[in-house]
Design brief:
Length: 152
């Protein structure tokens, strides 16, 4: 049986939210959208698409942490890894941003996978070993599974 969860989080996205994934063991939610980073706009830099990791607080609220995906096109799909220590975010920039938490900087950092992606990424799934990543694209192709190394 499901029960409704009342969430009074101040949503940080200002454009279409394209994907949401909930990590059940760590009780974190990751969201991605077509947003443009305010920081990038202020610096007249290239547009930067964003994701947020939402962490449940003891008082029942959700605390958002910004993730700079370093993408110049819309973020389309996001999914936590099986160990919930990283997530992958597909995009229409023909790239996948694999994000992990940097304890020293206290923020989420991204590494890009670009080859052999030739179209918008519409779906992502992790292998149970937390290292292999499969993706599906808008060109009716599935790039070969990618091994994620050096991303803790």
């Amino acid at each position: 049986m499901y029960s409704a969860i009342h969430c009074q989080a101040d949503l940080k996205h200002d454009k279409l939210v394209t994907s949401v994934d909930w990590a059940p063991r760590s009780n974190r939610i990751v969201t991605c959208s077509q947003d443009v980073s305010l920081q990038a706009s202020l610096n007249n830099a290239d547009d930067q698409r964003n994701a947020y990791v939402w962490e449940s607080q003891p008082d029942g609220t959700w605390k958002p942490t910004l993730v700079l995906l370093r993408l110049n096109r819309a973020a389309t799909f996001v999914q936590w890894s099986p160990l919930e220590n990283k997530f992958a975010c597909g995009s229409s920039a023909r790239a996948i941003a694999v994000c992990s938490f940097d304890e020293e900087g206290d923020w989420w950092v991204s590494k890009h996978l670009k080859k052999p992606i030739r179209s918008t990424i519409l779906s992502i799934d992790w292998h149970p070993n937390n290292v292999l990543l499969a993706a599906g694209g808008a060109d009716a192709r599935v790039p070969p599974p990618t091994t994620i190394r050096n991303v803790q």
